Amino acid sequence: MLPDGLATYGNKNPLNFILSEWQQVKRQGIDPREIKQMFREVWERSDTLKSFQNALAERGYFLAKGDRRGFVAVGMNGEVYALSRLIGEKAKAIKAKLGSSDEMASVSDVRADVRSKVTDQLKAYIAQTKAKHRKDAQPLADDLHQTHECSQSCDLYWSPCCVSWNSFFYGGESNCDRK
Questions:
Q1: pLDDT in tens, 69-78
Q2: Where in the chain does DSSP place strands (E)?
Q3: What is the H or E stretch that residue 2 is in?
Q4: Which side of the chain, N or C, has fewer Cβ within a 10 Å radius?
Q5: How far apart are CA 48 and CA 94, in angstroms?
């Protein structure tokens, strides 16, 4: 007796992977079944190409025109996923629901776009974190300056004086003559 998936094509488990798909998704550090389930849910809930694209973008995946296949998904790290395999539909059904992939951007264009978005977000995050650290460290620097009563006027953040920024936070040498 044959298993259900081999007896008839339609009875196979939609969450099964082939080895290469499993390894590709596992490299991301995410459970492969969750990704496939997410793609299935987005596919079932969307009606048009635009709604499908928006739903995928909210989850960090972007549609592109594949080299060998009509539609592929590109992850935030640049990995390319075959859409038909992830959603368990044939290319004909995907084309019927989403239309032609001819007007879609290529994989390399989508990767470059994702890279620039991530770079911009990281730069904004770094600036935000630096501003927060400066704000959080200001009371410490003020307290240190008041308790030491330095004879010079100084900016403890950037210029050396009684106790420099690096000596206070990283254990370096003090530049003060009044220890």
A1: 789 999 888 8
A2: 61-65, 71-75, 80-82
A3: none
A4: N
A5: 11
